[in-house]
Each structure stands twice: as structure tokens, then as C-alpha cells.
Amino acid sequence: MIIRVLSDSQYRLDDAAFAAVDPIDDRVQAAAEAGDAEAFSAALGELVDAIRAHGAPLAPDEFLPSDAMVPSADTSLEEARILLGDEGLVPNTKS
Question: I need a surface site. Which of 11, 51, 66, 68 has the fewest CB within 10 A?
Fold first, then answer.
């Protein structure tokens, strides 16, 4: 899976990295659904950090289609609503 963190880079997540990121994405989604901007901001920051920590950054000259786009950690809940889908920011493509 390829994830683009907006205003950052693209990261390749293998199954183990996805398993680490997915529960955090669930918290982002839950906070957004609850309209809890503070919890959303905290979870989004954690999600971006986890993607960077567990994903492998693509080379700057490597351009691949992204499976998901995650806003930068400083994005507000209102700004992020456009990217949120039914499965959160990082869709489960393992089904």
C-alpha cells in the first residue's frame, strides 16, 4: 500500500506497517465522527508519525499512485473532512 502524507512524501506500507497504522486510523475516524476536534488532532498527529515510523519512504524521483492520502498533522478536522471516507483515511485494501 502506498500512502501520501500531504505536504510530505509517499510511504510504502507492508502488512506489518499497515497493522500498526490501521488502529490509529480507526481513532482518527471515531474522533471525526464524534466531532471531537481535539481528539482528531491528537490521533491525526499519531497517525502521521506512525506512517513515517513504520512506512518506507519512496525515493523523491519515484512517483506511484497513492492508495490513500493523509493530511498533514496540523490539518483541522473541518479541513480533513473532505478526505475522510467510510473506512477512515487509510482504507483497508486487505478485504
Answer: 66
User: Can you tell me which residue has the cell 475516524?
Assistant: 29
Q: Distance between CA 28 and CA 41 in Å, rounded?
A: 8
Asked if 3 contacts 93 with a C-beta cutoff of 8 angstroms, the reply is no
Whether 54 maps to a domain, the answer reads yes
**Is 90 inside a domain boundary?**
no
- What is the arithmetic mean of pLDDT over 66-94? 79
Query: Higher confidence at residue 17 or residue 78?
Result: 17
